[in-house]
Amino acid sequence: MCDEIELNDESFEKILSDYPLILERACLDKYIFNPYVHQRFVKNVYENKDVLDTANNKNGSKNIFDCEYIALMSEFFDEFKLEMENEFRRRILKKVNKDKLELYFNYFCEIWPKGASARESVEISSLDASVYYFFKNRNLEPNDFVRKDFNKEISPLFSEKELIHLILVNKELIELYFNNYASFCLEKGLELAASEIWLHRGVHLSKPYKDGDKYIENRFLNSYSTSLTIVEQFSKIIPNKTPAIISGKLFDLYDRVFAFYAFMPNMNSSQQEIILIPSAKNLTTKLVHSDGILFEYEIDA
Fold it and tell me: Tens digit of pLDDT for each residue in 236-252?
C-alpha cells in the first residue's frame, strides 16, 4: 500500500467512470486534502478494487504506516518535539506544580499505553476524576457525557483551576504548532491549511449510528489520532462488530485536548495520539460514507 502513485487525469477519469464508492470516499471533506489517502485511492483503482483498502488490525502494538508518515510530513513533529515539550512545560508550570506535571507525564508515558485494563488503574482514574469534577463543579451531571462509569472514590490529580489551565495551554500550543506544521508542509510543496486537519477515532459498534444520533464518548479520556492507518486498526479490534471511524476537525475539537503526544516527554509517537475529554455540547453523528465494510461518521458540533 506504500508504493508512490502519480495522480493524473487518466487516474481520475477511471475513478469517475468505474469506481463510485472509491470516488465517494475520496471526496469526503476529511480526506480531500490528505495526500496519503489520495495515493491509496489511486493504487486501489489500478488494482481494480471496488472499495478502498483499510489497514488491518494485528496483534501487538499499532503504529502509523511508514507511507502515511511520509505523505503527511509527520517528521515536523519529531524535528520540533523538544521545542514543543519545553514550551508546554514552561507554560504549564505557571499554574501546576512540578510534581503533578511529572505524574501527568508518567501516567501517559508509562501506564496509558498498556491498554484498556491499565486505564482502570488508580493513576489513570485520578485523571478521569479530574475531568469528572470539572463537569460536576459546573452543575453538570458528568455521567451524561460518557458511556462508562469509573471509580468515584479516587481523588483527582488536578484541581478545577489546574485542569482549565492544562486545557487552555494545550489549545494555545496546538493552534500555534499546527499552523507552523501547515507552513512547514507548504514549504515542501504540500498545500495543507491547519483548519483542514482532522482528528479520527476508530471504534467498533454493535450497530451503526443513525444520522442525528447523539454522540457520547466512552470515557472521560478518549484517544483520537491524526493518523488514518492507526484508527483503522483500532476499529477492527473486536471481531463481529461494525468497524467505524468518527472524525471531527481539529480546530473544532481543540478546546477539549487533555494531552498531545508531541508535548509529552517520552510518549509513544507511533500513534500520533491526541487525548480528548468529552464535550458538554450536544454532539450528533452524520454518516458520510459506507462501503458495507467500514462506516465513516463526522461529528456535527
Answer: 888 888 999 999 999 99
Domain layout of the chain by residue ranges = 9-46, 66-300
The residues facing 90 across adjacent strands are none
Question: Structure pTM?
Answer: 0.91
Q: How far apart are CA 297 and CA 161, in angstroms?
A: 34
- Spatial strand order in the sheet of 273-276: 257-260, 273-276, 222-225, 198-205, 242-249, 295-300, 284-290
Measured CA distances, 297 to 243, 244, 272 (Å): 11, 7, 20
Q: How far apart are the first and last CA of the chain?
A: 33
Cα(284)–Cα(41) distance, rounded to whole angstroms?
28
pLDDT digits (tens, 9 = 90+) for 128-144: 999 999 999 999 999 89
> What tens digit of pLDDT does each residue of 65-118 get?
999 999 999 999 999 999 999 999 999 999 999 999 999 999 999 999 988 888
| Cell, residue 270 | 507511533
